[in-house]
Amino acid sequence: MPLKIDKKVCDRCGTCISVCPCNALLLTDELSVIRDQCTQCGTCVAICPVGALEIEKL
Amino acid sequence: MIMEEKFDIAVIGAGPAGSMAAWSAAAAGRNVCLLERNNKPGFPVRCGEGIGIRSLTEHSDARPEWIKREITCSAMISPNGTKVNITDIDKSTVLDRERMDGDLAQDAVKAGAQLFVTSPVIEVTRIDGGEYQCRCPQRTIISKIVIIADGVESRVARDLGWSTRLASDDIESCAFTRVTSPLIDADCCIFYVGSSVAPGGYAWIFPRGIGEANVGLGILGTRCTAGKPKELLLQFINRELPGGCIGTLHCGGVPVTRYIRPLVRHGAMLVGDAARQVNCISGAGIHYSLFAGKTAGKVAADAIGAEGVNYSSLTNYEKLWKKRYGKQQERSFALKDFVTHHTDDAFLNRIAATLTKKKSRKIKYLTVFLSTFSRHPMLLFKAFKLFG
């Protein structure tokens, strides 16, 4: 159940990065998730002001 | 082939804190670079753009072009719609942050700093000899001192041992946009409080001119769900400014926690949102950032001498911050904690009802929910005694 980023919705604001307990998000020209570090805790999903993140249900 | 370049001081992030730091260090004769992730500083604007005129002019060489609108009054709207006019706050302005941030970065360049745009810092490491290595996709920067101003995410500091992760009750999740509407009061900044408008935060309408305003809202992280700030903002605009033309929607986080300690580790310094230098009640941070950046840059420049770097002197920045704003920021956090745990809509309505009957000079109490209150923490307890 990986974290999915809707890049069309993401505004690249970095709010998710500030709450991530695992330092698993990285913002360069776009937001990306470091799969090895992400525990799919969902903290970033809840804080996103525009709803650009979700934990994909398989 | 990745280029490796050497500087005395590397500044990460060209917001107000970073650009002020780069400017003051370069003006003091140091070899400085300023690394900005985006392709230009100050865009997109992630800010309500409200600031007191005194705070702005005290800490920067403010240009008339930065000021979009001078504000003559402010008001708070309580959950049941009671409007309380606040007449005794400092004179406020609504800024053009895109212009201001661009000018501040250019000032740094004119003072001799080298600005690299489109240069996100992927990782910072301390290398042999105590110097810092900032790794960007295009280049690698080696510097004696690094000033970290990467904003709310404050990711870079984690590479150097700081714990900058924000708990959900220490961040406001915000959405904002520009609205054009004939219903906008061009002279008044209006704050809306209440759990249905902005749970654990407030909504704002800050005029930029006749018929145009910044409109936004923030929700406390613990009361936020995916996309809620955007959803509530659109509802708010439809309710308060029906028929208004809504511009591009942007979003961002505002830290509402204690400033990070220590602010200095060896040769690394934290400034601005990255250091959580934000007033926890109002969310205001521009004046803190201008001061912190300017101070950190100067202290860093002074620490570099002919015999090397006097790293221990960098802690002077933390001392100066603490003296000027640190205690005030700390009080704003204590108040935020108190307000978020001990107030509800009924309480806010009760305060508003009482305030509308008071003479305007008594309306200082209202600033509990705005900004100036943080300087007078005892008033909150008086307010509780009066209205509780």
Features:
heterodimer; A: 58 residues; alpha+beta; two-stranded antiparallel sheet; globular; B: 388 residues; FAD/NAD(P)-binding domain; D-Amino Acid Oxidase, Chain A, domain 2; 3 domains; eight-stranded mixed beta sheet; 9 helices; 21 strands; elongated
What features would you describe in this structure?
- The complex is a heterodimer of chains A (58) and B (388).
- With 58 residues, chain A is α+β, with helices and mostly antiparallel strands.
- Chain A is 17% helix and 21% strand.
- Chain A has a single domain, classed as Alpha-Beta Plaits, CATH 3.30.70.20.
- Chain A contains 2 helices and 4 strands; from the N terminus they run βαββαβ.
- Chain A starts with a strand and ends with a strand.
- In chain B, strands 1, 2, 8, 9, 10, 11, 18 and 19 form an 8-stranded mixed beta sheet that branches. In chain B, strands 5, 6, 12, 13, 14, 15, 16 and 17 form an 8-stranded mixed beta sheet that branches.
- In chain B, α1 packs parallel to α3 and α6 (286-303) packs antiparallel against α7.
- With 388 residues, chain B is of the alpha+beta class.
- The relative contact order of chain B is 0.17.
- The chains are: A alpha+beta (58), B alpha+beta (388).
- The A-B interface holds A 11, 13-15, 17-21, 23, 26-29, 43, 45-51, 53-54 and B 37, 44, 46, 118, 120, 122, 137, 151-155, 158, 164-168, 171, 173-175, 221, 224-230, 249-253, 255.
Q: At the first level of CATH, what is the class of chain A?
A: Alpha Beta
Sheet-strand content of chain B, in percent, reads 25-35%
Which regions of chain A contain 5 or more consecutive residues with pLDDT less than 50? none
Number of helices of chain A: 2
Radius of gyration of chain A from CA coordinates: 10 Å
Whole-number count of domains of chain B: 3
